[in-house]
Specification:
With 276 residues, this protein is α/β, with parallel strands linked by helices. Helix content is 39%, strand content 24%. Helix 2 links the parallel strand 1 (29-34) and strand 2. Helix 2 packs across helix 10 (234-247). It is globular, with a radius of gyration of 22 Å. The N and C termini lie far apart (60 Å).
Length: 276
Amino acid sequence: MKKILVVLLVTLLVLSTLSFAACGDPAKTITVCASELPHADILENCVADILKEQGYTLKVEVIDWTIQNDSVAQGDYDANYFQHVPYLNTYTGAVELFASCKVHYEPLGIYRGGQFAISASQNRIAICDDESNAVRALQLLYAKGYITELPVENEKLAFTGSSVTIGNVTVDLIAENLLVASMPDYRFVCLPCNTALTGNVDQSLRVDQETDPALVAGNANVLAARVEDYKNNAEYKAKIDALVNALLSTEVSNYVKEKWGGAITCDGSTQIDLRG
């Protein structure tokens, strides 16, 4: 009896050690920084299980989107998941990042603010202040008739400063994290989908959104990783490949469809492998 107990204890000890080692094995741990919704939700509640079947542990941390590219470039995380290619193309850090795959598309929306009693001469609209998203918002406002001229040249803002006046409409560029709180001060506010989700903005306030099919693939959110490490580090490449394959799976597209319906698009039109 004692021998059996000893064998059982040794076996349990070995299994526990192996399990702990697997969980703590850097080669089998993938770290990703992401925006809260829907990115971190997709990773934690769908992708993690897919990777677990392949022996990987996925660790996800929600951090401010403005520092995510630097955080990956500095090696704090293996990859990030929050941005589209136009925004990634503005990154000028010393370490080159690349979009390994496109995953899902979040339509930019125009939402009612709080100034519907004011006169037409006081029309003000708020949009995100980083250039790639500001250009996208201005293109949407122009396409939908909210502004009569498009102050954009070669996908760049054709003005300087934090606002532009077009006819009787003034468009203010403000920080993304202030957009929801600023809604009462504006007649309309352009909100990225994830900003509206995390800010718990009532969807009944949305009066318009992007409808151009070309934007679906063009502005799909991507998984960004380090170029040189992917080329020269086999262990790192294996992690990114496993993560990309999981994000391009039908499990992910089905999860997004079931949780967010048509609010977010994730299917063959957005799940695009960019590894070349």
